[in-house]
Each structure stands twice: as C-alpha cells, then as structure tokens.
Specification:
The complex is a heterodimer of chains A (about 260) and B (about 120).
Chain A (H helix, E strand, L loop, with lengths): L1 E2 L1 H9 L6 E8 L6 E9 L2 E5 L9 E4 L3 E5 L7 E6 L7 E4 L3 H12 L3 H20 L20 H4 L14 E2 L2 E2 L41 H38 L4
Antiparallel strand pairs in A: 2-3, 2-8, 3-4, 4-5, 6-7, 7-8, 9-10
Chain B lengths: L5 E6 L2 E6 L7 E4 L3 E5 L4 E6 L2 E9 L3 H12 L3 H19 L23
Antiparallel strand pairs in B: 1-2, 2-3, 4-5, 5-6
The chains are: A alpha+beta (about 260), B alpha+beta (about 120).
Chain lengths: ~260, ~120
C-alpha cells in the first residue's frame, strides 16, 4: 500500500511538538535480539530512528486500535504494543529504567487519535453546558448549516463520564474510527462545517456557532445575544491573533531552512 | 492528468483510497502538515507543507460534497485535534478556575500542555 512517505518523514523530523522521545530497545521481528533505537512519538505515530541524529526514521508504528501493556521478557522494563487482527505484529520494546518505561506506557496508551477525539468531545460538551446551560436551551440553534454536526451530541448527553481509559465510540464527527467493530457502517461521511478558505490546516478551532442567524430562534435570543456578542468579539480577536501568528510561522517555515 | 474513480475513506488522520471494486486500499495519505484548498468548481486539493507544488486533486460530484470533504479534511489532523483540546481546556479553566483534565488524571501529559513543549 502506498503511503506519502516523504510527508511522513517530514512530519517525523519537523519541529512540531513531540509527545515523547528517547531511546528504547526494540525486539526484532524474526530474530529476538533487541536493537537500540531513537523513538519519537508525535500524535498517533511512533517513529523510530537508527540513531538520534538520523535524518529519516527507519520505521513507524501507527498507534490506533492498539493496547499497551507490560510484558514478561528476559529484558528488564519491557512492554508491548499489541494490535488486534490475526496477522498483526506485536511490538516489544524495553526502556532503560522503570521511570522511562512508565512514562512511555502512559504516553503510548493515550496516543491514539480516537482517544484524543474523545477527550475533545468531552471538553466541548462541558464548555457548551457551561456557556448555554445543561439543558442546552438553544439546542435547536445548533442545527444550522455550517454548525458542528449535531447528531453525536444526542446520545452523548448521558451522565456517564469518561472512565480512566475511555471506550471507543464507533463514530465521531462523522469520521470513522480506526478500530471499528465488524458490521458497523463506515461510510466516508464528513461533518459539515462552514469556512471556505485556503488557510493552512492549522487554524485554531472554531467554537460551534450559537444563537446566530437562525430566524426561528430570533425571539428567544434575548439577553443571551448580548453575552454571545461580547464573547464572540473576544473570541474573534483571539482567533485573529492566533491565526496571524500561525500563518506567520507557516510562511517562515516555507521560506526558511529545513529543520 | 487522468481522473480515476476511487473510493475514499477518511479514518482518523489518514485518507485511504481504494479502487472501487477492491477491499484493500491502494494507498493512504497521512493528513499532517498539509493544506486543503478548494481549487475549481467541485475540486479540492491536498498538498503538503514540505512540497507545496505537489497537489493531490479530488473531483467531487457536487459542490456540497466538495465543501463537506474540505471541512472534514481540515479537521482531520491530530494537530488540529490537539489544538482544539488545548483551546477548550484553556477556556474551561478560565471560566471555572479548574483544569478539566484533572478528573481524568491526564493534566500533566505533555501532549495537552499549552505550547509548553514546542521545541
């Protein structure tokens, strides 16, 4: 299967934040000897390099749908990244200390996109409840063209909170999750959000528009409108600064020397 | 350039593409450090920061479909998700004085810090 390798290499080596980095011993696939490699965790991608100074990773492990657990090994501080699926490989790694092992196990087990998305949805929900009340008074308003896709919010309004290691929901934001159970539909659906610009894919996240423009809700806007306007202005200013800064960064990166 | 019909699936931060009659993808694009642009009518492109002239173009059946995909792809990166999280965390903290991640025991995770671990 083809992959945009050059872009992957760029992502691995560019100056975007790494969530963890360090030396780990990696057990070979066929021969059980361990090799010391420099590992860099970015998002849900675990890259490994032959040396810390290597310009390109020798491999990458995509951390979706996996479990990370301690394992029995002759090697001290060993842990394993396991994937479901009959033909999937288990990666056995070993850290150089107890602390390093714990740090890696923690960061790897929370590295998946699905996990991140779950936490984001949870915080979104909290923020929404704080701004607009727990009953989501203007829930009708959210059904605007250009809003966040409102559907997932219905079932999620149950009072259950995230457990320590959250369960994976089948669909979030209209995009399929990595590790779907068989039989669950995975169409290439998209969420419908407004914003038709050619900005770099690094804008700050827009909050879902609220109490705006929906003519049927004009009457009930009332006092909330004034509050939402000042909030909007404040946010608009914040976004403006953030966008300007990010754009500047991006332009400099384009022009400047490679990292 | 020849247009080939493909089944395209967005799964987390990967865009997989398939021949329409095959179950295994021919390829995938990792959607990090990329730019999604509306080109002409019904057409959008994906290009990567390190090679901006090279565009992966996709023609849609309608401008609505095109818009849907553009919006979905713009939000598809892990980095976008991370920024959303940091933003919401910050907003909630400002409003309540409490860090919403504390209850999950993940406040100290490097990946959730506000710009702290930029290199």
């Amino acid at each position: 299967m083809k992959l945009n390798e050059r872009s992957l290499v760029f992502y691995a080596t560019c100056n975007s934040p790494a969530d963890n980095a360090g030396f780990l011993y990696k057990r070979g696939e066929r021969h059980t000897a361990y090799h010391r490699r420099w590992f860099v965790l970015k998002g849900n991608m675990l890259f490994y390099f032959e040396e810390r100074e290597s310009r390109e990773p020798v491999g990458v492990i995509v951390l979706e749908g996996c479990t990370v657990e301690l394992c029995d090994s002759a090697e001290e501080f060993a842990f394993a990244i396991r994937f479901g699926g009959a033909k999937s490989r288990t990666y056995v790694l070993a850290a150089e200390s107890q602390a390093a092992m714990e740090s890696w196990v923690k960061s790897l087990s929370r590295a998946s996109f699905d996990y991140m998305r779950l936490v984001v949805r949870e915080l979104e929900k909290q923020l929404e409840e704080m701004r607009w009340g727990p009953d989501g008074g203007c829930r009708g308003c959210r059904q605007l063209p250009g809003s966040w896709k409102p559907k997932p919010l219905g079932p999620e309004r149950s009072p259950e909170r995230l457990p320590a290691l959250p369960a994976i929901l089948p669909k979030e934001n209209g995009c399929a999750v990595w590790n779907n159970t068989p039989g669950v539909d995975r169409p290439p659906n998209t969420s419908s959000c407004s914003g038709d610009d050619g900005e770099v894919n690094s804008r700050p996240p827009p909050l879902p528009p609220r109490r705006r423009a929906s003519s049927s809700e004009a009457g009930s806007a009332g006092a909330a409108a004034a509050e939402s306007l000042s909030t909007f202005c404040r946010l608009h200013e914040q976004y403006g600064r953030e966008v300007a800064r990010l754009r500047q960064d991006w332009l400099e990166r384009r022009r400047g020397p490679r990292p | 350039a020849v247009l080939k019909k493909r089944l395209v699936k967005l799964v987390v931060n990967f865009l997989f593409y398939f021949r329409t009659d095959e179950a295994e993808p021919i390829g995938a694009l990792l959607l990090e450090q990329c730019r999604i642009i509306k080109e002409e009518e019904n057409v959008f492109s994906i290009s990567f920061i390190e090679e901006p002239e090279r565009k992966y173009c996709f023609e849609c059946d309608s401008k609505e479909q095109c818009q849907e995909w553009i919006e979905a792809l713009k939000r598809a990166s892990y980095e976008f998700m991370r920024r959303s999280l940091i933003f919401y965390r910050n907003e909630i903290q400002k409003m309540t004085g409490k860090d919403p991640l504390e209850q999950y025991g993940i406040s100290e995770e490097a990946r959730f810090q506000l710009g702290a671990h930029k290199q």
